Amino acid sequence: MAMTRDQAKQKWADGPRSGPSPDPSSAVDAATLRRRAEERLRATADLEPHAQSLDEETADLVHELRVHQIQLEMQNEELRLAQEALEVSQARYFSLYDLAPVGYLSLSEAGLIEEANLTMTNLLGTARDDLIHKPLTRFIAPPDQDTLYRCRQRLWSTEEPQTCELRLRRPDEGPASPIWVRLETSIRTESPDGRRLWLVTLSDITCLKEGERARRDALARLQLVAEIAEVTFWEWHPRTDEISPPPGFGPRSGPKSEPDSAQTTGEARQRLDDWLARLHPEDQERFRTDLARFVAAGNKPYELEYRRRCQDENYRWMLARLHPLAGDHSPLDRVLLVQQDITRRKESEDWAIRLAQHDPLTGLPSRSLLVQMAEHMLASARRSGGALAVLFFDLDRFKPVNDVHGHAVGDKLLQALAQRLRGAFRAEDLVARLGGDEFIAVSPNIHSSDDAAQVAGRAIAALAPAYRIDGLELHCLPSIGISLFPRDGDSIDELIQRADQAMYQAKRVGHGQFQFVTEALNHQARLAQELEDRLRQGLAHAEFQLVYQPVLDIRDGMIVGADALLRWPQAGGGDIAPKTFLPVAEASRLIHEIGHWVLREATRQQQAWCAEGLPPIPMAVNISARQLRHPAFLPEVAAAMQASGIDPAFLTLVLGGASLMQDVEAARRILDELKQLGVRLALDDLTLSGCGLGVLKALPLDQLKIKRDLVRCLGVVGYMPAMIDAVLCLGRALQLDVTAVGIETEAELEFFRQRDCYRVQGFHLGTPMAGDRFANWFRGRSALPPAGAR
């Protein structure tokens, strides 16, 4: 019968009762055993006198029986001694196992604890019986559940020992500091049934972690000292209202950014009023107000920005960090003011604002600013009963110029052409660049087709003369499509769309031509209607599908999210591209039904992945302008969250900047309500959206996306790296996550790696996949190789 653990410990304490410890080498063969039995029988023969009175045959039989009896007794004695030695050895093992300096666990494949040593119970502050048949996850701190999950996945997929670090959760959930442990795990196969056990060793590394934290704190202090060495810093004494450099410190930030004579002339103290006199007049009162708030708040640090006049008499932007310094009798005896020159950051923000509203190459308004200004012109025309013309320009033969002479020449051609185009229109006309070689002009007070034809003719004449660029003589004429308000449409989007259709008709006629909206274009509208009907059928027959493209953190190659992308496969093979059917869906308002389906399907897939054992995967879903403004949108989001049971923090709604700029205040209210639901919000076309810095600050955004349109121009358009740097700078200034989309080459990946933009997605890293394939890809995912290794 097997001993209990306590019986085994007592055995070790008592030791064997008698006899030597058995040695496996002491086992004897049958002949030796019989010889020893014969010897023991002869030694006792004198004690059995009755044996002499037996006949020879009976005596022989009795003799054999006694020999066998003695052999059996000797074997039983050896077995008893071996059993006692085994029990002592087992007791030693149990004690060594229990008293080991590390915690030991044996778990089933399902993760249930089957065995635990005393050290493990002490780590968790619980009895052994409270551990048995409980899942290990119950004793892991919530923030580290994913760490354990990934470690276990690697173990079962590779069958190689794995190691990770995590925190334990004690059942009492007391206020004590977390217990950090190093978890080492392996697999052992039990014989003979082949059952596999999950073996876990836990070493207490709390002291090591505390040492690491102390080292990090010391490093942070050193980094703060290094930062302070680059700026100017002061001490303000609230009781005397005097300000001076801290004892032993002087100016460190150079003559241009150091505005105060006190530090350059050696004056020890000055009145705060004198110090404030060098602030910009518009900032002085605000500084005093913020300073009063800081004092009222007590001992909390404070930050404020202002402009300060420097030695060269120019104003520069400063960021002041106020830190309270307690005295012997007051919690606010002094205030340390750390002053940093942030002029470059402010200039970058201003530049980003201009990039958002103007085309960086030509300086013309971007599409978003065009729409804003054109809507005002259209509203004025409605009120006055007037008319206006929209002219859509597309340059003929521009692509060959780019292909033959390079993008540098192409950029210069666009700049020269934009200058001529601007000069061909009146001051009240609006000229903008849509992108590439497409331009838009909006001319108010155009009352007839003849008036519009004269405008188009002047524009063609202005662009007709040759362009001399880098020793080349280039010719580039436009094809122009013209739509008229109110004849061809009632909104600026509709007028641009119809003018775009007319432009393609002009291209078919020949170079340097213009065309008005015609009946033939109405035929195209009918084709759009047919596509709309097909969309309705597709919705009714569930023809749409979602695929999921992974978003990776290139520091460790881990998946940090997935983008849900819409596909419309056709029975005959192939897909209808989203760029073909989504504009029709948007115009027909079917986008509401499609968007609602996408939202429900994406959250359903998140729930399905969790049911398969995957951790919650953040999901990004694109939202159109019409969806955002629809009154049922907020309830639909809430219903999708409730139906799936997914934490709203794992859903990111991706918004187009143009949809926000159509009515910023209304958009802000909607986004605030979405944030109350707990979802995250992303903006995906900052450079084209016209969102100013003030607008971005007012919106509760979590993330910016750098679109593929920008990424693919790296190495092609000379200014594009600076443009992307501006977006990254703005994202960091606003404390937003930034994700680069459309990474298709190693060079593009390295570009963002060097700029510490770690969230990326694209075909180079992972193609869009169906839900089940994505799950398999997730399970088999390993870290990205370091740069240059692929």
From TrEMBL:
Domain GGDEF: 386-519
Biased composition (Low complexity): 15-30
Superkingdom as given in the UniProt entry: Bacteria
A Pfam family it matches: GGDEF
Domain PAS: 89-159
Biased composition range(s): Basic and acidic residues: 1-14
GO BP terms: regulation of DNA-templated transcription
Keywords: Coiled coil
Keyword Coiled coil: yes
EAL domain mapped to chain residues: 528-782
Coiled coil: 65-92
Region feature Disordered, mapped onto this chain: 1-30, 239-268
InterPro entries xrefs: Biofilm_reg_signaling, EAL_dom, EAL_sf, GGDEF_dom, Nucleotide_cyclase, PAC, PAS, PAS-assoc_C
Signal peptide: none
All residue ranges annotated as the PAC domain in the record: 300-354
SMART domains named in the record: EAL, GGDEF, PAC, PAS
Entry-linked PANTHER family: BIOFILM ARCHITECTURE MAINTENANCE PROTEIN MBAA, DIGUANYLATE CYCLASE DGCP
Protein name from the UniProt record: PAS domain S-box/diguanylate cyclase (GGDEF) domain-containing protein
Organism: Thioflavicoccus mobilis 8321
